[in-house]
Design goal:
3-stranded antiparallel β-sheet
Length: about 190
């Protein structure tokens, strides 16, 4: 799934929601849009969408609640619960690929946060933040060039090379700062 395609799909789904007869879109539209918002880490729009989905649609399509459970855990920055919610469900064909990509981007963001925030971290914490079991986690850490001491179970992340400074909008800077601070608080 290409990011441009997902942005186009999100726009199309938003238009379908707006054009829906009687203002209520199909559960499939809501499900895909909610999943895409999670993929994009647009938790505010995900939460607002969840609140405006009619209760009757939520009841008729329990998968919507399962998608929102992932969003709820992301909102709280509870990575272990996020992975548990992602893996507890066999997603419908409608959202399976998107939810698989949600897991990939959540794991990638967690790895980036750890590499920025820690000079050393307990292996168990890395496992919780990535949703990987011990052996896979150790292999993934080594693949990233992180040093792993298996006897003490300490991981030494390698900070990513600094990217050339680009001018970020105030909103982007605030979002990054908020994301980083909320990660450190957990």
């Amino acid at each position: 799934m290409v990011v441009n395609d997902i942005n186009t799909l999100a726009e199309d789904l938003e238009n379908q929601e707006l054009a829906a007869p009687s203002g209520i879109a199909s559960p499939e539209v809501y499900g895909q849009l909610l999943a895409i918002y999670l993929y994009q880490n647009d938790l505010c729009n995900a939460k607002f969408l969840w609140k405006r989905i009619p209760a009757s649609v939520k009841t008729a399509a329990p998968e919507l609640g399962q998608i929102w459970a992932v969003g709820h855990h992301l909102w709280k920055s509870d990575f272990p619960a996020t992975y548990q919610a992602l893996n507890a469900v066999k997603w419908s064909e409608n959202v399976a690929e998107i939810m698989q990509n949600v897991q990939i981007v959540v794991r990638s963001r967690a790895v980036d946060l750890m590499s920025q925030a820690y000079s050393s971290i307990n292996l168990q914490t890395v496992q919780a933040m990535t949703g990987l079991d011990s052996e896979v986690c150790i292999a993934a850490c080594k693949e990233k060039g992180w040093r792993v001491e298996t006897d003490s179970k300490i991981v030494y992340p390698v900070r990513k090379a600094a990217e050339p400074l680009s001018q970020l909008s105030s909103e982007d800077q605030l979002f990054k700062l908020t994301d980083f601070v909320s990660f450190l608080e957990n």
